């Protein structure tokens, strides 16, 4: 198969979808790999390393898209890339369709096959390609939140861990999944007073057992959230519904109950956000203020630490990329239920229910779709 890795062009996105080691693995199996010039430079991988591993370096993004049967990316295609994606071309990346209707329609119209990292799902319902970036984003949420609590950024001017004789900051984490757990772990390590809210009693029992004494759990409901935000210094939104929009747990009118300088970090912003007033921002302009409450809503937080993020992501994605390359997407998705759940949009049809529901689009059952396309794709 011909596999192409374009350079990410989203604002301040420095990750790359394949490392030289990944290129070597694919090349050793007889696949052709094309990498756009400087695609890996932001993560510390020069063109020479890719060439030595067996990749062909292409000078432009147009040539790179044109070369691939499979496009491997990190972030969802943005508008300048829409026209570069061809009918029947497999695009393997994060899509987060439910938060972006224009992207959804563009991919439907392209006739491409969109396999989303974030909905590849194991039998135990874990999300193996979302977990690595969730771990990074969760830890970064606390790191960035602590930074923006400083007074020069119009935060409350409070040190997360306090000092002897002065109480630490109060951190509220909404969601006890991977992001929330990592955020709470970082906040606890910095000495903060941490509360994690979740809907699952088994999950809270687990967190109660493994977390240090300065982390407590509480049932997530509107009443408890309204009470907790009154004296929270840092609030981290870490709610995920795979492939669908996140629910708004904090509404606009709830901001009036927060103290001036409170910091909100919404890690779910690329799925619509769990804080109503959050809209996606960039690393260049990461924050805005509404009602004296500071919002940090960067949609690609792990892009700020690309070396760590690229290695963590490619460790997880490479085995799936190899399977797709070896078998072709149709056979791979038929054989592997995890990959099958990653199919969102294919050949003009929406085959993931969460995307269909988000925009009231016609839905095609993925198993019926795969049965109808069996044998239509071959592996080069």
Automatic annotation (TrEMBL):
GO terms for molecular function: alanine dehydrogenase activity; metal ion binding; nucleotide binding. The active site is at residues 96, 270. It catalyses: L-alanine + NAD(+) + H2O = pyruvate + NH4(+) + NADH + H(+). Mg(2+) binds at residue 323. Substrate binds at residues 15, 75. One of its GO terms (biological process) is L-alanine catabolic process. Its EC number is 1.4.1.1. Residues 4-137 form the Alanine dehydrogenase/pyridine nucleotide transhydrogenase N-terminal domain. Residues 149-297 form the Alanine dehydrogenase/pyridine nucleotide transhydrogenase NAD(H)-binding domain. It is an enzyme of class 1 (oxidoreductase). GO terms for cellular component: plasma membrane. NAD(+) binds at residues 134, 198, 203, 220, 239-240, 267-270, 298-301. Binds 1 Mg(2+) ion per subunit. Its cofactor is Mg(2+). Keywords: Magnesium, Metal-binding, NAD, Nucleotide-binding, Oxidoreductase. Belongs to the AlaDH/PNT family. PANTHER family: ALANINE DEHYDROGENASE. This is Alanine dehydrogenase. It comes from Fulvitalea axinellae.
């Amino acid at each position: 198969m011909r596999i192409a890795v374009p350079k990410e062009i989203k604002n301040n996105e420095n990750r790359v979808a394949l490392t030289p080691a990944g290129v070597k693995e694919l090349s050793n199996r007889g696949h052709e790999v094309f990498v756009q010039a400087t695609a890996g430079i932001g993560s510390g991988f020069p063109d020479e390393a890719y060439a030595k591993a067996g990749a062909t370096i292409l000078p432009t993004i147009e040539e790179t898209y044109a070369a691939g049967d499979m496009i491997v990316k990190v972030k969802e295609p943005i508008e300048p890339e829409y026209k570069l994606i061809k009918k029947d071309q497999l695009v393997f990346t994060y899509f987060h369709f439910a938060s972006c209707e224009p992207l959804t329609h563009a991919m439907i119209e392209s006739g491409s096959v969109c396999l989303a990292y974030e909905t590849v799902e194991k039998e135990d319902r874990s999300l193996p390609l979302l977990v690595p970036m969730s771990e990074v984003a969760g830890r970064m949420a606390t790191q960035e939140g602590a930074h923006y609590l400083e007074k020069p950024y119009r935060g409350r001017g409070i040190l997360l861990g306090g000092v002897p004789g002065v109480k630490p900051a109060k951190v509220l984490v909404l969601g006890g999944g991977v992001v929330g757990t990592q955020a709470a772990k970082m906040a606890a390590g910095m000495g903060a007073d941490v509360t994690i809210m979740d809907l699952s009693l088994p999950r809270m029992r687990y967190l109660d057992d493994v977390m240090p004494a300065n982390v407590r759990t509480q049932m997530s409901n509107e009443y408890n959230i309204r009470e907790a935000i009154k004296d929270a210094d840092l609030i981290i939104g870490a709610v995920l519904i795979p492939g669908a929009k996140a629910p708004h747990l904090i509404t606009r009118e709830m901001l009036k109950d927060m103290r001036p300088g409170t910091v909100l970090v919404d890690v779910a912003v690329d799925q619509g956000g769990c804080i109503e007033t959050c809209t996606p921002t960039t690393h260049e302009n990461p924050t805005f203020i509404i009602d004296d409450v500071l919002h940090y809503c960067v949609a690609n937080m792990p892009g700020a630490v690309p070396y760590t993020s690229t290695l963590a992501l490619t460790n997880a994605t490479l085995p799936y990329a190899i399977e797709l390359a070896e078998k072709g997407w149709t056979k791979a998705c038929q054989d592997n239920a995890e990959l099958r759940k990653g199919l969102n949009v294919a050949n003009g049809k929406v085959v993931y229910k969460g995307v269909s529901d988000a925009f009231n689009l016609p839905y095609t059952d993925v198993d019926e779709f795969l049965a109808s396309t069996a044998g239509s794709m071959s592996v080069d």
